[in-house]
């Protein structure tokens, strides 16, 4: 059966929920004030939310330090001399957040959580069945972007494409500036997906965690240990604000070194989250550093943290 272009366009529009119900007209952002997200001027009733982030105004660029992928046999390897991308998250200004804001743009084959609020009474998030999100880049000719993502946006325990679909569906749909109406009446299907991927990469390239830590003598090692205060000080010096550092592994008070300690923080460094507010559209990359809203999950005891080397056979140079 054949469908008209108008019918297909109408279907896409009906399946996609706008955060504010705005039209797809008159979003010429050069005519709008370049307000800072989370400022009193970033009010969706008084500014164009396509031009100023008014929904998820506390932006987090998040990164992983993994030592393997579990998909080495499929050629999914970790880059040498670099952390990898986790995502670009739109928290509310108070540090809380929401997720899966537009089920019409749900491309996650394994939604986690599987409801919009993470609770049983939330709206169910159906698993996506369809072409992988990596195929969305080809019509836009973004093969170079795809290659970069496969090198630096690497999943652990799942194909890269599934990870990217999760990050877009759960987080990108909760930005006002990535809302579909913002792309105007000539919106091309999945244009917002490609725009989000480019924006994630833009921010990641600005935060070279491996190099920043290395500049302060902090390198991956299976023998040297580090202290949280030194890690935070190094990144504060380079970034201008204190990021969140995440640690897994055994809690310090469950290790031999931490016996009789009350410090129950993790001991294996594996995440960093850089917080910021943005001017105008998130896509434009104009941001100011903001301190983390909580506190690190890492142990604070001296020498409690390891920054392990990556596994042999899991790295590409």
TrEMBL record:
GO molecular function, one term: RNA binding
Active site: 86, 167, 171
Record carries keyword Disulfide bond: yes
UniProt keyword list: Disulfide bond, Endonuclease, Hydrolase, Nuclease
EC number: 4.6.1.19
Classification via InterPro entries: Ribonuclease_T2_eukaryotic, RNase_T2-like, RNase_T2-like_sf, RNase_T2_His_AS_1, RNase_T2_His_AS_2
Keyword Nuclease part of the UniProt annotation: yes
Record-linked Pfam families: Ribonuclease_T2
GO cellular component, as recorded: extracellular region
Gene Ontology BP, a term: RNA catabolic process
Any coiled-coil regions, as ranges: none
Family in the record: Belongs to the RNase T2 family.
Protein name per the record: ribonuclease T2
